[in-house]
């Protein structure tokens, strides 16, 4: 019924909202910057990145425009699907061999050594707590990132809906309002019988609002979780 969500495709759609296809090359040309590089084995750089720098130099004639995304596009996707965008030194998952091969191919093609890797993935794939859809990026400077490889399975198509209520404070408020309203409609006859006095219904609605708020406060305080709007770049699993 529902197709899995491919985050790479979602990123491209988000980028198209603000960047016209004919402007991509001009856009790419404006983001390169010369910088020194260091040479270390690929997996070692991934496990410790960033090591010495957070910007990489690419050959403009060899870049794939479909692999370049601005931090604003990445933020929108991470917030919508409750994902993290962190340095690869926090990543606790394993890297398939194709990731190493692609990094080596990119380095050979662009005559550079990549550093400052970042990755998009659910928080459970980072060393944050206590295989979904990781995407590995290399920074290009000025807020732009180059997608190296995406692996694993696509996200569940309902993940965006599942975490809509914890996207930000506004969404949480709307969710509590709707759930309280639905609860009032479903239980009003059970509690008041055939009485449909507006005052009684409003009191019941407020009862549910306070109940759900209290429950969320207790759960939120005990788990230390934060809204997606504030946690997508956080290296911490809990509010501290």
Précis, in short:
The chain contains 9 helices and 5 strands. By secondary structure, the protein is α+β, with helices and mostly antiparallel strands. A hairpin with a 2-residue loop joins strand 4 and strand 5.
Note down, in words, how this protein is organized.
The chain is of the alpha+beta class. It has two domains: 7-150, no CATH class; 163-231. Helices cover 44% and strands 10% of the residues. The chain has a five-stranded antiparallel β-sheet with strand order 1-5-4-3-2. Helix 1 crosses helix 4 (71-81) and helix 7 crosses helix 8 (198-223). The longest helix is centred in the C-terminal third of the chain and has 26 residues, at 198-223. Residues 32-39 have low confidence and may be disordered.
Residue runs with pLDDT of under 50 for 5 or more positions: 32-39
Question: Nearest-angstrom radius of gyration?
Answer: 23 Å
Biggest sheet, spatial arrangement of strands: 1-5-4-3-2
Question: Total number of helical segments?
Answer: 9
**Biggest pleated sheet:** 5 strands, antiparallel
Distance between the termini: 40 Å
Count of distinct strands: 5
Mean pLDDT level: 80
Helix content: 40-55%
Query: What order do the helices and strands follow?
Result: HHHEHEHEEEHHHH
Q: Categorize the overall geometry.
A: elongated
Which range does the strand content fall in? 5-15%
Helix-strand category: alpha+beta
Number of domains: 2
